[in-house]
Amino acid sequence: MSQALVLFSGGQDSTTCLAWALERYARVETLGFDYGQRHRIELEVRKTTLAEIRAQFPQWREKLADDHVVDLSVLGQISETSLTRDVAIAYEASGLPNTFVPGRNLLFLNFAAAIAYRRGLDVLVGGMCETDFSGYPDCRDNTMKATQLSLSLGLDRKMTIETPLMWINKAETWALTQSLGGNALTELVIEHTHTCYQGVRDTRHAWGYGCGECPACALRKSGYETWAAEKK
Ligand code: ZN
C-alpha cells in the first residue's frame, strides 16, 4: 500500500487533502515550508491542526506520522510579494495577484520529492487547484503531470502526485471535508485552519477566522456560504 507525503500549510485546502490521504494510505507524513511568511500564524496553526486531528480522529492517529518543516527563507530573496513583504495585495498586469512567487509550487514539489524519496514515500499530495481564482500556472493539472514525470525520471523511482482538489471549487471542497470527517472535521477546519492573507485571527465568522476582505477570505467565505445554503 502506498505511503504519502502531504504538502500541509495549515490552511483549509491542505487540511482537507490531509484527511483525504489519511483515508487512503497506510502511512502519511506532512511537510510545511517556512519561506519567511509575513504572518507566522500559518506555521502555528499547522501544529494545532495536526494535534486536533490526532486527538479527534483515532482512526487516523496511527497513520499520521512525522511532520517536517523545511526552511525555504531563500524564497524571500527571490520574490517581491505581499506574502513576504509589507506591501498591499494587488493584481498585476499578468492577472495574477502579487502574492505569487513564480514557480513556488515547482520548488515545493521538488523538495517534497527529495524528502519522500528518503522517507520511502511514493505519493505526494497537494491542494493545487485549477478552479482557484488566481490561476497560478504552477498549480495547473498539466504542470502537475509534467512534474510527476520529471520527478519520477530524475529520482529513478515512481513518484505520484495526487491533487484531490484540482477540479473542484471551494464549495465542493467544504463538501469533501464534510464527507471525509463529518461535522467534526468541518468544525476543525473552521476553528483551527488559517487562510487569510492578512493574518487576521481575532474575528470568528461562520467559515472561520480572517479579515473577510482579502482574496483568500473572500474565496473561503463564498465557498462556505454556497455549500451551507446547498446543504439545507
Ligand atoms: Zn483575509
List keywords for this structure.
two-stranded antiparallel ribbon, binds zinc ion, Rossmann fold, 7 strands, alpha/beta, 232 residues
CATH topology name: Rossmann fold
Encode the helix/strand succession as letters: EHEHHEHEHEHEEH
Secondary-structure arrangement, i.e. CATH architecture:
3-Layer(aba) Sandwich
Name the structural class.
alpha/beta
Low-pLDDT windows of residues:
none
**Spatial order of strands in the largest sheet:** 3-2-1-4-5
- Based on Cα principal axes, name the global outline: globular
Q: How many domains make up the 3D coordinates?
A: 1
State which percent range the strand residues make up. 5-15%
Report on this model:
With 232 residues, the protein is an alpha/beta fold. It has one domain (3-169): Rossmann fold, CATH 3.40.50.620. It has 7 helices and 7 strands; from the N terminus they run βαβααβαβαβαββα. The protein has helices at 12-24, 41-56, 58-61, 104-119, 141-155, 170-192, 215-231, and strands at residues 3-7, 27-34, 64-71, 123-125, 160-162, 204-205, 208-209. Strands 3-2-1-4-5 form a 5-stranded parallel β-sheet, with helices on both faces. Strands 6-7 form a two-stranded antiparallel ribbon. Helix 6 packs across helix 7. The radius of gyration is 17 Å and the shape is globular. Bound molecules: zinc ion (ZN).
